Amino acid sequence: MASEAATKVAWVLIEVDPGMEREVYQQLLELENITETHIVFGPKDIVVKIEFLSEREMTETLIGKMRMVSGIKDTTTMIALEV
After folding, report:
1. 16 and 46 in contact (C-beta within 8 Å)?
2. What angle do CA 46, 54, 70 make, to 5 degrees?
3. What is the overall mean pLDDT for the chain?
4. Domain 16-79, CATH number (from 3.40.1110.10, 3.30.750.24, 3.40.50.720, 3.30.70.920)
5. Using CA atoms, how far apart are residues 46 and 44, in angstroms rounded to an integer?
6. How many other CB atoms are there within 10 angstroms of residue 6's CB atom?
7. Is 23 exposed, middle or buried (0-12, 13-18, 19+ CB in 10 A)?
8. Where does the Transcription regulator AsnC/Lrp ligand binding domain start and stop, copy by copy (predicted)?
9. Based on C-alpha coordinates, what's the Rg of the chain?
């Protein structure tokens, strides 16, 4: 990954099929660009942090890679802004 200044961050809140938390968690650990993965309590089941250098790279992770993970029911993506 390039310099820290060029890195952008997105947080993805993930709802999974009942009983699939650990399996989805393990699959997400293997994906490139995902730098943190946490199982959480609340309306969503897993939170991941994605670091990327371009919108294309983020889209590839979200649409290309995460959609291939079985057990994901719904996602909410929040892109962090530089203020």
Report:
1. yes
2. 30
3. 92
4. 3.30.70.920
5. 6
6. 10
7. middle
8. 12-82
9. 13
pTM, 2 dp: 0.87
The identity of residue 7, as a single letter, is T
- Residue 21, token pair as written in the block: 């938390």
Give the pLDDT score at 1.
47
Type of residue numbered 68: M
Q: In this predicted model, what pLDDT tens digit does every residue of 44-81 receive, in sequence order?
A: 999 999 999 998 999 999 999 999 999 999 999 999 98
Determine how many CB atoms are found less than 10 A away from the CB of residue 42: 7
